Amino acid sequence: RAFCVAVVRVLESRTPLPLILSTFQVTFLRAAAADVRDGWALEWKRTSWKKMLSFLKDDAAARDAIVLKEVKPGSFTIAEINRLADALLAPDVEEVLMRCAERDEQEQQHAAEAGIENVRIQYRKSAKVTKRAKVYIRYEQVRGNKKRITVKGLAPYLVDNVSGPEFEKELRGKYACQVSYSAQNDELVVGGHQISFEEFLVQRLDGLSAAMIERLGKKPKSSKK
């Protein structure tokens, strides 16, 4: 979980990639470990992996979340991050981020009252901002010419607007295609590449704006499936 929190913070701080692995550990992972378990110091030698690199190569969630690149013998960087990795969007990771956001906001307020500059990095400004998080949309081509749209991060918006099953039914009627929504994974899959899909989401779901949508893959120019 500490690894996932650290990777999300790399994304939220807009740290450019590639990111040297040792920098990731010192700047992000150690702080995330202390946040996941209060004051916990990450000691790889006490784990079965012994080294962080062994963990990153062995753990399935880590392999799904990041792409490592060896730039020279024994020196690695994080070359890519899969924003839609299930582990990064897990509820327990979100819980840590929200808790830390609330803590940072309180510290910022106390520092302001005392006239002291708070130098802690704030990865998320508040729990309210966290609730209205980004929605990730991936346009994919699978199994030959079949296409689909995969959406992650809709759960906060569906809570205030419509239930998952009702939204599934609504989308099937609108686009006449296969639609499935997994509440457990917060993942919506829509058959085909629907040209007006993003616009429909913004109009249909209160609180969602075009600025909150991050597109992974090229948006279709036509409605052909």
Summed up, the helix count is 9
**Number of DSSP strands?**
8
Give the topology string: H per helix, E per strand.
HEHHHEEHHEEHHEEHE
Tell me the strand percentage band: 15-25%
SS-derived structural category: alpha+beta
- Rg, Å, rounded: 20 Å
Query: Helicity, in percent?
Result: 40-55%
**Average pLDDT:** 79
- Estimate the global geometry from the Cα principal axes: globular
Summarize the main sheet. Answer: 5 strands, mixed
Give the assembly state of these chains: single chain
SSE blueprint and pairings:
Blueprint: H1 2-12, E1 19-20, H2 21-36, H3 52-58, H4 60-65, E2 66-72, E3 75-81, H5 91-114, H6 127-131, E4 135-142, E5 146-152, H7 155-161, H8 164-175, E6 179-182, E7 187-191, H9 197-204, E8 213-216
Helix pairs in contact: 1-2
Protein architecture, described:
By secondary structure, the protein is of the alpha+beta class. The longest helix has 24 residues. The strands form two sheets. A five-stranded mixed beta sheet has the order 6-7-5-4-8, covered by helices on one side. About 6% of the residues have low confidence. The radius of gyration is 20 Å and the shape is globular. Helix 1 crosses helix 2. The protein contains nine helices and eight strands.
Index terms:
225 residues; 3-stranded antiparallel beta sheet; alpha+beta; 9 helices; 5-stranded mixed beta sheet; globular
